[in-house]
Write a sequence for this structure.
């Protein structure tokens, strides 16, 4: 992941240099007040662009709100939220499967909404609140969806499970009385290589029922 950011920075630097070179060449060949005024304005714009801070490729300090706690990490700006969680934050419950937004294994909540954390840069989280599988339960007490997954044997290898649980728990938080189709829709982006889908659906519907009882 280091190379693309360096490449991007290098590209930006080249872009600035080529703009400056172009303006310098224009200054040599152009004459007249109007062109000089235009040239001055262009120089000012070029100066302004060069004053803009380029973030990275070195690591930058970030303050994140994770599971109700304020955490500080220092990571390169191209670090995804999933990488920051699993790396410096040591929250390895969030899994990385495809690392490109196709499997939903990395699902966490951002302000209560399930998102693919491999598709969001940690630097772009800013003030928003992140909830991971580690923060879903209440201390040692499992979230009802977690308990129902165990009860209904909705876990095989477990790789997709944290992401599945986060999406199912978000569904119940927003719709306490979901239909089977609602559960299917909520988990439709999740790939389970072990084929636990029917158990996941049963577990989620049972958790919803238990919440009402
Ligand atoms: S790891 Fe993020 S969607 Fe697959
Ligand atoms: S339980 Fe193995 S991938 Fe879903």
């Amino acid at each position: 992941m280091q190379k693309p950011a360096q490449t991007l920075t290098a590209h930006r630097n080249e872009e600035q240099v080529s703009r400056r070179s172009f303006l310098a060449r224009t200054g040599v060949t152009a004459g007249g007040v109007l062109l000089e005024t235009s040239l001055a304005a262009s120089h000012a714009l070029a100066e302004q662009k060069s004053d803009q801070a380029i973030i990275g490729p070195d690591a930058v300090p970030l303050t994140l709100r994770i599971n109700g706690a304020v955490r500080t990490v220092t990571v390169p700006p191209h670090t995804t939220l999933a990488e920051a969680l699993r790396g410096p934050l040591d929250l390895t419950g969030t899994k990385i499967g495809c690392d490109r937004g196709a499997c939903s294994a990395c699902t966490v909540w951002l302000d209560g909404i399930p998102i693919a954390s491999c598709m969001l840069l940690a630097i772009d989280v800013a003030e928003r609140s992140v909830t991971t599988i580690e923060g879903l339960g209440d201390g040692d007490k499992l979230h009802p969806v977690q308990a129902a997954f165990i009860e209904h044997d909705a876990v095989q290898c477990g790789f997709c499970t944290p992401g599945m649980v986060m999406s199912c728990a978000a569904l119940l938080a927003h719709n306490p009385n979901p239909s089977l189709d609602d559960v299917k829709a909520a988990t439709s982006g999740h790939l389970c290589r072990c084929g636990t889908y029917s158990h996941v659906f049963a577990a989620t519907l049972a958790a919803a029922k238990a919440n009402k009882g």
